[in-house]
Design brief:
12 helices, about 15% strand, 2 domains, binds (2R)-2,3-dihydroxypropanoic acid, 12 strands, Rossmann fold, about 325 residues, 7-stranded parallel sheet
Length: about 325
């Protein structure tokens, strides 16, 4: 019997590759950068399964180029805004993602950004490296207290709740805004509901974003919403770059409308080294490393590979983005 053909678009941890290699003929792209669109389209032709990254656009053109035998797209990420889900469903393609395994790791990063921003950790380290540390100074690099401050969480899904628990552990007052979350789930993590997003923005010292990117959340944080925030507030984004209007954020940081932004995700992404945001002293940017720990990336590779294999065997994976496709 011929083995299914699979394309893995980047070198993921070995644990996942072993699962695929056992039963498939797999091509793995080992390049330092993602495949160009042209190369990607060439390589998907005739495949049965695709294990892809959030940096690849999986649209109708790609699905058509792959051919009608394509059964599964397994995304090496929890977010799947890079995939045209209705187009996949219309073609009977199962889409899988990696929820759960990266929740705590991503929440750790969100909280690291919050703490680094509040206590000016990066600036302080730069100060020392630049040979500016001459003596103990009463007013040197003063930051913001984290304990007893108000943390506003927008989007109280898995990662939002994990950040809320961290906030409570630091004795913060935790607020949230999320139309979909039931009160019991919020109470579990000690988060208090705000009726409107504006109410949360007005009183929060830290605002952390945990919504998926969709038509509804594109530029959710725009000029108008930034204006509502405290001038001392810190914005943390570990969700998707396009949830924030970059130009509006630049203006808000430049004019002191808000104090600081700490971003794991940006729009555009990657952010060019010469981008105006990087010229601001009150903006910290890290390169989309929310789930980047050895253990979590291994778990993601296993989960993405197992889901892909299950679909290729005509079995249902544990997590599926478009379950209606199986009906
Ligand atoms: C995701 O999974 O969506 C993150 O952004 C990367 O791990």
């Amino acid at each position: 019997m011929t083995k299914p053909k699979v394309l893995v678009t980047r070198e993921i941890p070995e644990e996942g590759l072993e699962i695929i290699n056992e039963k498939c003929t797999a091509e793995v792209w080992h390049g330092e950068l993602p495949l160009s669109r042209k190369e990607l389209l060439k390589k998907v032709s005739g495949i049965d399964g695709l294990l892809c990254m959030l940096s690849e656009t999986i649209d109708e053109e790609l699905m058509n180029t792959a051919g009608p035998q394509l059964k599964v797209v397994s995304n090496y990420a929890v977010g799947y805004d890079n995939i045209n889900i209705p187009a996949a469903t219309a073609r009977g393609i199962v889409v899988c993602n990696t929820p759960g395994v990266l929740t705590e790791t991503t929440a750790d990063l969100a909280f690291s950004l919050l703490m680094s921003a509040a206590r000016r950790v990066v600036e302080s380290a730069d100060h020392v490296r630049a040979g500016k540390w001459k003596t103990w100074e009463p007013k040197l690099l003063l930051g913001m207290d984290i304990h007893q401050a108000t943390l506003g969480i927008i989007g109280l899904g898995r990662i939002g709740r994990a950040v809320a628990r961290r906030g409570r552990g630091f004795n913060m007052k935790v607020l949230y805004y999320d139309q979909d979350v039931k009160y019991e789930k919020a109470e579990e993590v000690g988060a208090l509901a705000c009726e409107t997003m504006d109410e949360l923005l007005k009183v929060s010292d830290f605002v952390s974003l945990h919504v998926p990117l969709s038509d509804e959340t594109l530029h959710l944080i725009d000029e108008n919403r930034l204006e509502k925030m405290k001038s001392t507030a810190i914005l943390i984004n570990t969700s998707r770059g396009q949830v924030v209007d970059t130009d509006a954020l630049y203006k808000a940081l430049k004019t002191g409308e808000i104090a600081y932004a700490a971003l794991d995700v940006t729009d555009p992404e990657p952010l060019p080294a010469k981008h105006k945001l990087l010229k601001l002293p009150n903006c910290l940017v890290v390169p989309h490393i929310g789930s980047a720990t050895v253990a979590t990336r291994e778990l993601m590779s296993i989960m993405a590979a197992e889901s892909l294999m299950l679909v290729l065997k005509d079995e249902a994976p544990r997590f599926i983005v478009n379950p209606e496709v199986l009906q």
